[in-house]
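User: hey, got a sec? need LysR family transcriptional regulator folded
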Amino acid sequence: MERHEIETFLALAEELNFTRTAERLLVSPGRVSQTIKKLERRIGGPLFERSSRHVALTPVGRRLHAELLPAYRQVQQAVANASAAYRGLGGVLRAGFSALWCGDLIVRAAEVLQARHPQCTVEIHRMTFAAAFTGLRGDELDILVKELPVDGPDVIAGPVLFSERRSLVVPASHRLAARETVSLEDLALLPLITPVGASQDFLDAHYPRRTPGGRSVPQGPAAFGWEEMLSLVGAGKGGTPVGAMAADYHARPDIAYLSFDDAPPVDYAPMWLKGHESARLQTFVEILLELAPTR
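Assistant: Yep! Here you go:
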C-alpha cells in the first residue's frame, strides 16, 4: 500500500463520509473514491459498504483498520522522534519554580511535552528565592517559572503566563486581619518580612521601603523560604506581600490573607539564561502558554 492509500483509507474509516474525508485530506471526493476503489481491487474485495446515504466498513475493512491503524501511528511516531532529535527536542529539560501554583502548571506542561515527544523528559525542581536564579546561572536549571521581574540582564523573560491579584499576609492577631482589603499605605503599619537572596529589582517591585504617600515601611526579618516567612508572620513578626493564590495553597490558623485594593497584579513568566535557548525549551514555553490559566 502507498502512503496516500493508507491515509485515505484511515480517514474514510473515521469519517465514513466521502465529502468530509476529501476536505480533511485537501483533495476532491472523486479522488477519495478512486483511491479506495484502487485499494479494493488490490485487496480483492470491498472495504466499505456504500449507498447514497450510508458509508460503513465491511468486516474485512474493520479488520484492516484495526491492524493498520496502530502500525501507521507507530510509523508516524518514529518519524516524529527522528525529526525531533535533529531539532533538539530529545533529552532532559530541567524546570524550576518557587510558588506551588507555578509548580502545578509545570507538572501539567511536562505531561503534555512527554506525551507529544516521548524522547524528552522533564526534571522538576522547587527552588527557594535565593536558589532560583543561582540555579539558572549554575547550570542546574534550563527554565524557571516565577514572579517578574527577572534578576539581571543575563536572564530573559518569556511572555506573561498569567497574572493575579496581590495580597498581604498578616498575623491573625493583627488589627489589619479584621479587614477585607488593605491598601499600599497599610504597609507602614507592620514590619515587612522579606526573602533572603532576592535581587534589589525584585525587592523594589514586591517589598517597597516606602508607601506611595511617602511613609516609611518598617523592615522586619528575612527568611530563605516561603514556609519560613509564613512562620515569622504567624509568630507576629510582620507581614509579607504575595499573590492571592497563596491563600489556597498555604492556609494557616495563625495568619490572614488580605487583598490589596490599589496594588498592581503579580505577573508570572517563564525565564531562562540568555544564549541557552533550545528547541526543547521553546516547545515547553509554547505548552505553558497553552495551559496557562486566564486570570
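Quick note: The mean pLDDT is 92. Let me know if you need anything else on LysR family transcriptional regulator.
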